[in-house]
Amino acid sequence: MRTTRVWRRVLGVEHAVIESVKLETDARGQELLVARVRVKAGSARRCSRCGRRCPGYDTSPAPRRWRGLDLGSTQVYLEATTSRVSCREHGVVVAAVPWARPGARFTTAFEDTAAWLVCHATLAVVAMLLRVAWRSVADIITRVVADRAGKIDRLAGLRRIGIDEISYRKGQRYLLCVVDHDTGRLVWAGKNRTQETLGRFFDDLGADRAAQLTHVSADGAGWIHDVVAERAPQAVLCLDAFHVVAWATEALDQVRRDMVNRLRASGYQDEATALKGSRWALLKNPPNLTGEQRTTLAGIAKANGGLYRAYLLKEQLRAIFQAVEPADARALLGGWIAWARRCRLEPFVKLAKTIKRYQGLILNAVEHGLSNARSEATNTHLRLLTRRAYGYHSPEALIAMADLTRGGLCPPLPGRS
Ligand SMILES: [Zn+2]
Asked: Ligand 1 centroid vs 89 CA: distance in angstroms?
């Protein structure tokens, strides 16, 4: 085997000619391997947007470098002279190079590896292992997702979807996310929670495919219901279980906070502090409680009837979504509303009114089995994503991250399929 062929294989540049390979020391004293390459004649002078062969326009005087995958512990760079072509359709554009995506400073193999790693490890690990800044990882993800999204139709075959508003930047900004209930995948995301955003989703979906939707779940937002009623009138509208449970959890927390404040105001400092520490015991699902939290809860049951009543109200509402028979769910929900109305806990009296208003949509969710663990896991993941402190510099970067990790756009590792 000739040495240049070995280099081509090792560096993963199949449609290129390797002119030279040398070691170089950078400003920080690190050794770099720099391979000088050029595009093979057959792949030269192609538009980077459509891939069509075009007349050459000009050639850049200075060569350009792309970071490739490390060889052992040595950083690798490809170096080549770039040129522009004049495309019939796209005008004067950079000519495509077979080893990198247009506009990238990294090779495709490096970018796919980074994107794959992001799906399987924490960002701190990825940035450390690949020796890149988080900002570069975000740019890489955006490019990989745009590239792969163009090749996959994620809106094909949708039947049951969930529409959800997810806040980021401390609740200042919103993303509108559409999840497929049957696969649990994120299939669409857009900036802002407005009718226009949701309208764009339905535009992308098209009238034929919108007519195939059988169920649409959402939170209580009336504007979502209006758009769905207009664009997919045949779909059964449901209220997502986890929103309903979240409302009850919020009401319970309000009851607890009110009690802490009342105890403080009456001079019971120790009691107030103890109650403040009970937050997680109250909010967690019973099977996940620690021994200590169970004891806390038992103490509340004995000493604080009002708070314990609020706890039971939350748990009872959660149990309705586990009902197998729609008739059972209907009876349980009716009973719950009656109980909450006269429970003398202001947040739950208020919640009873809301639940009453959405009764039909809640029962739809139970009846059609839309209280789905997979789509809920995706929603939980998306919420966690927005809370990470990486400082997404744009909603596009956040959407790309969500698409990559929950939208089925994670690329395979280079060289393996
Ligand atoms: Zn073109």
From this structure: 5
Q: What is the structure's pLDDT at 389?
A: 46
Give Cβ neighbours of residue 366 (< 8 Å, ≥ 6 apart).
241, 320, 321, 323, 326, 329
How close is the Cα of 143 to the center of ligand 1, in Å? 18
Compute the distance from residue 48 Cα to the ligand 1 centre, in Å: 7
Q: How far is the CA of 86 from the centre of ligand 1 (A)?
A: 8
Q: What is the predicted pLDDT for the residue at 110? A: 96
Measured in angstroms, how far is the CA atom of residue 409 from the centroid of ligand 1?
25
Residues that place a CB less than 5 A from ion ligand 1? 47, 49-50, 87, 89-90
**Does residue 392 register a pLDDT over 90?**
no
Q: Is the dihedral of CA 275, 276, 281, 285 positive or negative?
A: positive
Task: Note the pLDDT of residue 282.
Answer: 82
98 CA → ligand 1 middle, Å: 15
CB within 8 Å of 169: residues ≥ 6 apart = none
For ligand 1, the distance from its centroid to the CA atom of residue 157, given in whole angstroms, is: 31
How many angstroms does the Cα of residue 90 sit away from the middle of ligand 1?
A: 5
258-285 pLDDT per residue, tens: 988 988 888 888 888 888 888 888 888 7
Summarize the confidence of residues 167-173 as an average pLDDT.
77
Distance 44 CA to ligand 1 centre (A): 14
Ligand 1 centroid from CA 109, angstroms: 23
